[in-house]
Amino acid sequence: YMYLATSDSYASGAKMAMRINHSGHIHASRGYITSQVPAFNAYYDGNSFAPGGNYIFAANATRFNNGGNYSTSNYRFTAPVDGVYRFYFRTITNGSATNQHLVFRKNGTDINGTNQHFSPNSGSAWCQLEMETVQDLSDGDWIDVRFVTLTISIHGRAWNEFSGHLIG
pTM of the full predicted structure? Predict the structure, then answer.
């Protein structure tokens, strides 16, 4: 790391204002640099499908990917700096089923409290499904979305998104 510090009082000493890690990511402990805020909006670029259970949501395209921290090959966002992040997921579903279940995961483990249970009874009508969470992440932690159980169809392209950004 490279540290930059400032002080408004030499008697109290310098206070860290910014650090840069080995990858060039900048962490400003007292504010942030707006052009460097990690943020992404990813989606599945395909037709509707029924992926089944234990399925990692394959957001294989991005609308934007500030900082390049979302991977369209492993479908994860990896935190470039320590901080609090907000994540959002939405899609539309088609069909009738009971006990459908999805969850956000951190480093491959389901995040307790982010489980979304739904039992749609819409037949051929499309219904919206969405969830969000705020997580405190360390540099290198990663987040993805997993369908634990899914026996109905979800839609692709304009009808879904997995997004997130650094809050601070």
Answer: 0.79
